[in-house]
Each structure stands twice: as C-alpha cells, then as structure tokens.
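Checklist before submission:
- one chain only
- standard amino acids only
- sequence pasted in full

Submission:
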Amino acid sequence: MQQLYQKTRNFSLPSGITLHWRNRCQNTVDNITSGTSLTKLVGSDPVEFKQPEYEVTVPENTRADHLLRLSARVRATGETVKYRISQGNEDNLFHLDPASGILSLLQPLDYELQQQHELVVEALVGAARSVARVAVKVDDQNDHAPVFLRALHETQITEEDNRHLPKVILKQVTAVDRDAGRFGRLIYTISGDGIFTNGSRPCFSLDAASGTVLLLRPLDRDPPHGQAQWRLRVTATDGELNAHTDIRVNLKDANDNPPFFPSRITTATVSEDTPIGSLVTRVEATDYDDPEEGDNAKVTFSLEKNAIDESSGRPIFAIDSELGVITTALCCLDREKTQRYVIQVVATDGGGLKGTGTVVVDVDDVNDVPPRFSRPEWTLDVSESLDPDNVLATLTVVDQDVTNDFAYRVVPDSGRGWQMFQVEGVSGSLPGGNLKSVKPLDFENPDHRQGFNFKVQVTDVGEAGWGQKKHIAETWVRLKLMDKNDNDPMFSKEIIHLTLPEDTPRGSLLASFTAFDPDAAGESQIRYHVDPNSDPGHQFDVDRTGTVRLVGGLDREITDAHSLLLWAVDDGAPPRTTTSTLTINVTDVNDNPPFLSDPREVHVTENSQAQLVAQVKLGDPDDWQQGHGPPFTISLDPRAPPHITNSVRVTLDRRGDDGRGVGVVWTRMALDREEHPTLLVPLVVGDAGWPSLTATVTLTLHVADVNDNPMAPAAKTVTVHTMQRKGAAVPLGRVYVQDPDNWNTGAKTFAWRDPQAGFFLNTFTGHLSMAPSTPDGQYELRFIVSDSDQGQRNIEANVTVLVKRLSPNDVRNAMPLTLTSHSQSLVRPHSEDGVSVLGRLVGAMQAWAGGSGAAVQVISLQPLEGKTPSTRVWLSAVGIANFEYLLLYHKNKLSATLGIGMQDVGVVSCHEDAATSLDKVAEERCVGGCWVGLADHFSVVDANSSAVVGPQVPPHLKSAPASPNTCLNGGRCLNTASGSRCICPHGTLGSHCKVLSRYFEGDRDGEDASTELASEGSWAWVPPIPPCSEVHISVEVLSMVGTAALLYSGPEQSVEQGPHIHDVLLLELHQGQPMLLLDLGSGPITLTLNTSLADNMWHRIDLIWKDELVEMIVDLCLGSHWDKLPAPSPTAHNHSSTTVFPDVHMCRSTAKLPQNDHILNTSGVLQLGGLVHPLSPIIVGRDPVLPHPPHFRGCIKNLRINGKLIDLGNGVLSKASTPGCPAADCLINNLYCGLHGRCQGSPGSLHCECQPGWDGPGCASPTTPTTFFPNSYVKLALSFSPLAYTSSITFRFRTLRRRGELIVLSSQHGRDSWSIQMVDGCLCAVLHLHPQPPTSICLSQAALTDGHWHSLAATRYGSATFLMVDDEDGDLYNASLLLEGQQLLEVDKQEGIRVGGSPHFQDTGMFKIDSDYFDGCIDDLRISGHSIPLPPAVNSTTWGQASTFKGVEQGCFAPSSCTNVSCRPPLICVDTWRSYHCGCGEGRVLGRSRVVCEDEDECAWQPCLNGGSCFNTHPGYVCTCLVGFRGQHCQLPDVSQTSLKLPVGILVTSIVWSIFFILLVCAFLLHQHHRRTALRKCMVDAKDTSEDCKGQVSPLCSHTPNLLELQLLKPSRASNHPTWARNLNIADVDVLRVDAGVMGLRSNMGTTDSTSLTENHLRKYSHEDEGPPLGGISSWITL
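Returned file contents:
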C-alpha cells in the first residue's frame, strides 16, 4: 500500500496498554505499545480512519486512563473532525473525546465478567463520516486467592495398624479459586508430622487431583518417638497466592508398650541398724500407653530377684505393689557382712507387659567395729635428710566401718624420742596416719643415732574417744635413723702455697691434704682426686691418703705456675665433694740447651764452587735474665763423618744477632749429589749458663741435582690387585731405568719394544696403565728409553706385571694395619735378601696363622698425611679366624720382625667428605665403625724397581644395612618360609648360636713363654667397648680365686710414658672384693666394694657410666647369691612381712665423672680373664693397681655391653680358656635336664628349669595356653607372698593387637604396681612405687605383635627393672638400674594379681575392663619362679588359684583366615594364625619357571649337625644321627651313650629289663618266621598303597602283627650325604628297626635311593616348631 506522509502528530499510549494496528493490504497487525507515536494518514476520502479496526489490551482492574488516540485524515483543508462511540459502550465503561479522538477507560474492567469489549467509533466531517472498530481485550490478573471450604479436617485411626496400606484416611481435601485463567489452576502440597525432607519415606501422601489423603506407613501413638495426634497442613497455590487447611489425625491407643523404669539402676541407702519395715526407696515406672484406654497404662510392682538372708532363708526386702515403695523385711542389716544388695524390680501393666529395673541398696555404716593397725609393730628405716613436713611412714589402719573419725596420737612417755614425732590423719580412701617428725632428725646426733621406740594410738570416734577403750588401738613404732650423705667433707687446710724448681724429681711428695666427713659417724671413706681441668697435663696425682705427688714433672718453659684443685669425695650416694687449692710457683733451672732457630735446612746446587751457605741463629727457652741464655757458642761437631768435615766448615761470629752469636757455615768444595744427596751437618751449641749446657743440633744441607749421569738398563715388578670391573684404566706407575740423577722426564722419551694388548704407555712421562678387565697372570712388558741431555737412545727397560683378581671374600676379610713408615720403604726390596717389608709381613702372618694353609695377601696401600710418615696397609686373610686379634696379639713381635713401628690395627677414621660416590664403591663392610669398600680409583705406591697397585679403600659414614643371619659356633643357616634361622648346636643359645659362658684356667706355672701365644695364664679377647657417652656393662662371674683380672680395656705395655694418660678400664678382684679402675681421659676413678665374690658361686657385676656418674653394683643389691634368689615363704602375709632393704654401701659404689670426658676411647679389644701383656707403667703408677694382675680361674658368662650379649664361643681368640663352664654344667655333673630344660645354679646347687611352654617331669609336657576374648580377665590369688624387693614374671604370649595389659602385680588398693603392657605395639614394663612417678622401659625396636609365640621374662630388683623377650639380646633386651627412692612392692597376694585386663567396679554396680587384652593368648605364667594357673584349663596349683575369670578359653586357636581368600596360581593361601599370606606352603618354593611350586630340598642347607645325615621329605626333611647324638638336628648329646655313675638299684633294674627285652625280641623273631611268606606278598604290592585323609599310608594287606615288626636294613647311601655309622651288630644285622606306627611296610630296604623311604619312615613330631622326630629314622633302635 502506497502511503503518503503529509503531516505527523505524535502522542504516547498509556502504560500497560497495547495497540494492535491491522494492515489490511499485508494482512498483518502492527503492535504499537505505550510510548509509540501514531502518525495521521491522509488519503483520498473526505474523511477516513487510518485503520478500520483497532485492538488494545488492558489489564483487568486498571483504573481510568487513556487507551489510545484515534485519528482520521481529511482531504479538504481546514475541516474539523469529530469523534464518537456509536456502539458497545452501553455500560458506559469508555469515553471518546470528540475533538482529540482520545479513547479513555472510565471504570476498571473484570476479566472474570467479560474478556473483550467491541466498540464502534465514527469520525465526522460535516456530512461525511468514517467508521472503525476498536477491540478492547482484558488481560487476566491474579486477583483471587484459593479458598478451602473447611479450615480443619479431622479423622481417627488405630496406632500401629499396618493393614491395607496405603489406605485413604480423608477424601477431597480441595480448594476453589475464582480466577478463570491460568491463575485458576491449583497445585496441592502436604507438610507436617510424618512428612520428611531428608529423603526418608513419608507417612502420608496427597492425591493432587482428587485431594485424597493417603496413609503410607503405620503410626505410633506412644512416646518417645510417637504422638497421640499427628498434625498435617495441606497447601493450595495458584502459583502466586496460597491457601491452607489443617488436618488432625488422632490415634487410638493399643497396648504395645511395656512399662519401664526411667532410671535403669536406682540407688538407695539404708542404715545397718534400720528396724523392720523401714523405707528404703520408692521406684516409679512409666508406661507410654494411653492411661485413658482401659488398663493399658496401669502398673503394678513386684520383686523378681530379692536378697535372701542366709541364716533364716527369708527375703530381706518387700515392695508395695501399687505404690512401688520398698521397705526392709528383716531387722538390722549388717554392713560388715554385706555392704551392698542388688535386687530386681518388675513393673507389669494391665495387658501383661513387663519391665525390669535394678535397685542397688548400699548399707550405711554405723561405727560399731573397733579399729586396728595393720601391723602390731612398725620397723622403719628413715633417712635423716627428710624435713619435718615429710611423711616418714603411713601407719595404715584396718576398720571395716566407713563412718570413722580417726584421731591419732603418740603416747606420752611410751619410749625413747616419743616427743619428737606426731601422727596426722591421711585424707583419702586409704585409712591411716602419717608419721612425721616435729623436729629435724640428725644422724650425727648421738641420741638420734640410737634410734627411736614409741607407741602410737588410734581411735575411730574423734578426739573425744580417747576415753573409750573399745574404740582405741595401738602399735609400736621402732624407727632407725639412716645416715644420709648431707654433709660435705671438710679439708683441714683450704689452700697451700709452694715454690718448686722445675727439676723437682718425679714422685716427690708436695703436700698432704686431710679431709673429714661428719657423715657415717666419721667412718665415711674419703677419696681424693685432682680436678682434671686444673691439671690438663696430668702432672700431679693424689693417693687415698690425700698426699699430692709430682708424677709428670715440671717445666717452667711450658707453665711457670700451677693452681691445683683437690677434690675430697665421700662414699655417699650421691657423693658429695669439697675443694681445696694447691698453688705452685715454678722457678727456672738451666735445663734446656740452645736450639737451632733459623735456618734449619739449606740448599746447594751440585758441582758449584765453595760458598757461604748459611748464618745460623740459636735460641734458648730458659730464663735469660738468670744467665741461662746467650751469648751462645757454635762449632762443627768434631765427631762429624769425614765427608762432612771435608765438605763443610763452621765459624762463630760473636757479634752477630745483637751479640748473641751466629754460626757461619761454608762449603769447602764442589758437592756431588749422586755421592751424597743430603748432608746432615752436626753443630755443637752451648749457652752461657753455669754449668753451661751444650747440645748437638743438625743443619740439613740438600744438594740440588744436575743431570750429569747416564742411564742404565733396569727391570721392574708391579703387583696389581683389581676387581676386574668396567671402568677407567688401572695405573701401574712409571717405566723404570737406572739413573742416579733425579728423573728429568722432560729430557726422556719412552717407547714400546714389543707392544702388548691391554697395556698403555705415555711416551712423554713413561707412565704405564692397563685395562681393568685384564685377566689374572704374569705379563712381561719391554720398553726402550732415550735421554736427549745425555745423548742416549734405546736403553732397555723391562716391566713384569703380576695381576691378581680380588674376590668378594678377600674384601669381606680385609683388615687395616697402620705402619710408621714411608710407603716406598714398604715396597722396596731389601738389599740383602731381596724381600720387601710387605713380603716379610705376609710371611710372618702366614706362619703365625697356620702356615701354608693361611691365605694372607696385601690388597692396597694408602699413604697417610701427618708429621710422622705412615702407611695404611689393607691385608686380606681368608679363612683365618680372629685375624684382627692375631695382629693385635703379635703387634710387638711383628714390629720387631719388620723393623718398623705398628701404629694401629683395625682402626680407620671416617668422614663424610672422604667417601667416594656410593655407586662406585663395592663389597662394603664395617671396620672400626666406618664403612669401607673398593673404589674404582687405584692407589699406586712406586718404589722404582717395584710397585704395588690396589684399589682405594675409602672409609665413610652411612646407615648400617640389615646384617645377615650369621650362625656362630658351628650353627647352620636354614632358609624357611618365614625367613632364615640358625640350627644351633648343643650348648649355644639364641638366634645366632652364641655361647654365653667361658671357663678360664688361671695362672699356669712353668709354661714356656716362647710358645705361639707367649703369655702365662688364661685370657680371651672379645670386641671392644663402643665409644659411647652412656655405657652399661654387666657380667656374671664364678670365681675360684681371690685376686685376678676380670675385664681390661686400655693401652698396652708398649705405650710410652708421656704427659697424656690413656683411657683405661680395669675390673679386678682384690682378695675377693671387686675393684674398678676407670679413666676416661681426665684422671682415674677407683671404686671398691667390701663384699667377697670368691666363693665359687655366680655373682653379677654391673658397671655404668652416664650423666657424670659412674657406678658399680654387685648382685643388684639382692643381698644373696645371684643364682640363688631368696625364696618367698608360702605362709608369709603381705602386711606382716618386714623386708629389709639391702645395705647399698655393701653392694653399690658411685663416683662423680669429670665434666669434660665421658667416653672411653680405647680402640683395642676387651680382654677377659687376664692380660696378655703387663700393664703400662702409666697405669701401674695408679695405686693400688698391680703391675701384672693374676689371671682369672673360674667362669664368666652373660657378658652384656649396652644390651648386646657377647659371644664367648669358638670365635674368640684365647689361651687356656674354653667355651662353657664345666663346674656349672648339669650334664657333666650327672644331671640331665631333658630336651626342654635348662641348667641353672652354681656348683653344689645345680638344678633344672623348664623352658617356657614346658612343664612336668623332665620338662616333657607342653603347657596349655589360654585365649583371651574381648572383655576378658583373670584374677589370681597366690598361696605365697612375693618378696617385696625382688620379683619376676615369665610367660609366653601371642597376639596381633597393639594395646592391652597382659599382667599386673599390685599392692593393696592398687597404690603400688608393676605391670606388663602392650603400648602402641611396644612391649613395656611399667613400675609405680609411690611417691615416685611411674617409670617404664619398653622394647621399642622389637616386632612382637606378629602373631608368633614370644617368651617374656621381666625381673625387678627394687626400682631396677629388666625386660627380656626370646633371645634376650640386642633389641629384645632393656634394663633400668635406677636404685633410688622407694624399693619395696608389697604385692597383695589375694587381690593384686590380674591377667588380661583390670576389672573395675563402677558406681553403677557394673564391671568394666580397663586396658583389655583380647584376641591373644598367654601361656605358662610363672611369678617368682612358681607356676601360676591359667583357667579354664588349670584353675589351681600349689602356688595359687584362679579366683575369678571371664571371657577366656582353653587353647590358642583361631578361625581360618583363608576362608574366601584366593591366591594367584600356583600359590595357595597359607594360614598364619589370624592372618594369612599367599605362598607355596610348608617345604615348597616357587620354581624357576615361576609357574609351579616345587619341593624344597632343605638338605642343601646341611641342617644336620655332628655328622648327621639329611634326608629330604615332601615336605620337610629328617636327620639320622651318629651314635652319641640325637634331636631333630642331631644337636643334642645322647644321654644313653654317656657314661653316668648310676646307683646300684638302677643298674640292677636296667639289667633285668634288658634281659626281658632280649627275650621279647627273640620271641618276636620266631613269630615273624611263620608269617614271612604272607608279609613278602604284601610288600610286593606296597607301591600301590594309598594315603588316607591324614596323609598316612594305609596297608593293603590284612596282616596285622601282634606286637612289633622287626625289619633288616642295610646302610642307605643318600646322594651327597655321608653313610650311616655302622653300629655294633648281632649276627650281621646292622640296624634293628622297631616301628610301631606303621605296620606292613616294605622289608626290602637295601636300595640306595633315599626317596624310597616313605613319609611315615621319616615322620617327625614337634611342639611349636620344637622337639625331636619320633617314629622316624632317628628313633630306630640300634643294637
């Protein structure tokens, strides 16, 4: 449509109104919204509307407003248009302005009444008019909210009714909405009780279409979770407006709740004198059912379990059935008889439902029992150092009443010293009175020293009760005052001044100091020491009397004054010290001759003319002011060799050096270096003192070389040691030609004569090298050398190279030896015999170590830097035991043989920066605390005509790797599924087969001192004491002599005396008394004890130094023989025993260590039983040490250093000493302890003790373990009282749990205790002795929660505790020797022993198990050596009984851990007691193909000892033993083969039984003769025998012998195994076999195939992996 825009008038539509403009031509509608301008259109008609139809939309409820402007176009100009509504406005809702054409709304429109209005409008211009239609559409608005017809809906259902679910409980809960459009569509939701928002299934649902409410789940009416009325709310919403209605669902009660008591346990209290019918308490019960619904909630009460009076059989309590009131039914309860009653009350409702509750009635006390002291007499040892406020003792009182008001008093005039003490009541649960002193106690007071004796009384009715005798008890107190080291010693002189000349002789007495100690009644022993800080040069010494002597000599030139501090130390514990001072002024003596000051060395070129060489100046350290110095004199020594006097002259210039005098040195002629390369010019010098001191000093004159000599042909030998690994070339040194001149390689050239592959030559320097992979052998190399300065060409030089490959064994057996010599001197052949020092060294060691069978060789040489030239030689000794000790022993002899000094043996210094990269170091081992190995770099020592080349051996630090399982003393290593273990011979112990005892023969008169080990008497060497700041050494000795050396570590005789005193440890016996000499570098400390150990009994000695204190303890202050503990009395009682604490002065000695030195630095071995060489003079000078202490005769065992047991077996270098201790060997002394017994005791008191897990006669019966389940415990009562000072606990245990209490020993009321616990996987022993805090020791590095059996031994000596497991070695041992404070533990033998946990009775009357040990087993419990029962298998023994136990079971079984476990084939699940692993099973290993499991041949490990033969079985193996041995591995001596002295009666009995047995055998042989045919027939078919479910062979024939079957055997030869020993024979029968376990086996046993022996022939029996084979080859009887 063509439109012409002639005139535009704009107007805006009202807000919310939309104008629809229809375009007829295009049949479209243009929307014009508010704010849009309309343009008047002008056409061809006189008057014409823009559009014939208009549409406008108006929201309902819109107020009066303009809707739109109508416009018409007029063709004639100047005409006026009028507008009007002609139709559709009957309700007068609209208005059209005639002039403007604006259509307006006069009244709001309602969508719900009419959705659209049609208007017809006209435009008039004169008579012309135009008509248009306007459609006004009403837009719906949400002006009506939904409405429920009812505000509340209510219904009733029965509770817990689950029938017909889901079911309708309300119909058509709907709402109405007057909106007609989209706002009239409603959505319903339900909320309230039972409608959950957490995803749980709701109890109700609502049908949105019909408004029906459904019940989905049964409802509960009763508390605590139910409710009588369930409230819901239904919400209807049209999207914007909401409406609500409430629903009430009322529940009808059902009797579904039994009555219950709000408090499960009700406590009440009643007095013990209450009459009958008295009120005890009232109980109340609650029933959640509806009380209005019949009798559902009506409750009646009754007593289901009442307390019954034992004497009358009548009930003690009664209850009112309606009110629940409990009253007493009997008169006068007795609290002392029964303190608490527990009764059960039942509440029943009308429907028969019941609920139970517990009433605990505590009986209140009435003070009707008199008190009594727990002891009729108290004997106390009290230290004088306690203040008056300290408690001396708690006098415990026994009174069964609890309403006691205790009052105490000391009875006046009752005894000596009563007025000095008072008794105060103890506040707490334990009744008693604290005894205190009202005045200070002083042992130095003679009246106090006599002790105190007085009477103490107690009353239980307060201070007013002293007149009531019935309520009074008394006891005697006998108090002995113990001296405390509370006074310092006092010197008689505080300071002494001396002036001494410096030449004062050594040993001179300088001064005497006397000190007095008021302690110990003046009997205290005073030790005197020199403060090491005041005497750094160790020049002074003080003896036991306080006499100070000069031992090191004075030297004014070093120190002109000394201020010496003297210590006086008493013998208290801890010792107290006082100090005095000795000042010494040192005056000068002309004791130093002049010395060569400058120069000391000069150089002169050879062939030069005579010339001035030097002007020599002198010096003198003496005091020049006293004339002890210049002017000096100097001259050439007239005794100088001729070549010196002919070459040098010396004159004195007196005016030189400011008049002090100068020596002028000249050469007389030209010097020849090849004749004398160095001239040592002796000069005689003197000072001006009176008398004058002269000396001869040396001026060194070096002659510088000039190449003036020709070369000559020469030969050289190079010895090379390599590992033949890939790497850089091996240097061999330089090609050698004989040339007197110093080598001038710049003028020389080198060339091959016959080049050889694998060797390389540097033609400029002459250095030779070879390939590292060069094979062993001898190589002849030929070279030519030319010298351009001399004009020489092609001089022959031959080199012989000897290549030797080092094996790993050579490196593992390497040992360093440090020699004080230049390296070239060791390699250079001697001019006389052509043998070098190294050659003589190797030859001597081979001769001393065993001659031609020894394999000693030099691996490498390492030159060392220092003032003194020295070389470290690495020697290898394969197959030589104790090679290091042999070197040490022959040190002096070897030094004399070689003609050079030996500095160290087996000593290296390691530093981090000294190590080669670890990936280039191979074959490492530990030497002297450092890790050493062969590096890729080589050390070359070239001595011209000979050279030695070897790999460098760099020492370095690193973490120690896990050591292999080393089997000592002939033990065999056996590989098992659980790892490697040792098969140990008889007499060895532990996992490494250590020998723990050794016998020493003592001094042997008349012995030839020239023998190989040329020392008279017995001795043994063991590894040295580690250099640690804390050291604990323990040793047990059985001495047959009174004076002898026990332990020694220190310098040897060859050490020269000097100002430095070497560290030393010497433990001796002096007339039976132990004496320790210890010097850690700051002066000696001597400890002695006045107790004799020379009684042929075992005694233990502990040496400890740590924290500035050194102490020596004998027998752990046990006060008895170490191996014979005092036995507890079965009739003793805890509270009547009066254990006396041992006298620590007799068993313990201590001393204070200097502050600076706490480490024993002795690199040598620890010598036992005697000294190889006499003591160094340095040590002999220390009183009271003997020059050569006698050798020890007796036994030493259990030598332990820092927890590690030292092996004393065959690997120990010794003389006149053997492993074991015959005097304490049960078998030697005709006492056999059986397979599972061990020998204990001293000579004369030997006895057998069963190993853990074994009991009965001969220790042949295995004990029965007990399994502990959760919440389990065992309470034990003993028939004896363990000693208060010492006690022991031993048992076996097995667990995977990391926490739990295994056993507790406690005193009455648990005040003091000693327990064994598992704490975070560590086994700990916790000791608590009041008032000290608890102390504990743990095995923190031992893995004990592995499900295997472990044997534990814990011992206590006072406050010292020991904890040991299994081998009792290394990480399996820990000890604490703190003997301070409280030492006694009075074990309550009735209530103080608990196993597996501590039951605790709570206030609620229920038991709780603290520290519960469960899912584990305990076996063979022993306390103080006595077997204690473990229920349920054993409930009582002679020494105790189980009083209470819970949750325990006999045996130690566990459910299979392999259930529902599958392993990857070919592996199977192997059950390992509450755990499992995948493996091949016992005796089987994974084959090389890794796809099948194969039987492992354990015989390859040679597990059979003492010549036994091994036979492999499937699985396992069996050993057959030679005559005289038995056991699973032939490790035990056969007692039947041992000649024992038996009583006549036993011999007669044995003979009779032997005759009877022979007759029986003959009868049986006759019986066999008649059955031989049938037997042979059966044996032919033996190959087809089958195995039953137990793996036993079932015989195919029906023949069953009546008694035994005897079969003839020939000695079987197994591959790679020795034949059986031939026994005594009868009628050519070698072996007569008796086999009762297998009948009808093959009779033809002559085959050599060991596999023909069936499994039953080789069957073995073991209990917990122990025990000899039974019924197998080792049980055959030999005749």
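Reviewer check: Residues 265-364 form a domain with the Immunoglobulin-like fold (CATH 2.60.40.60).
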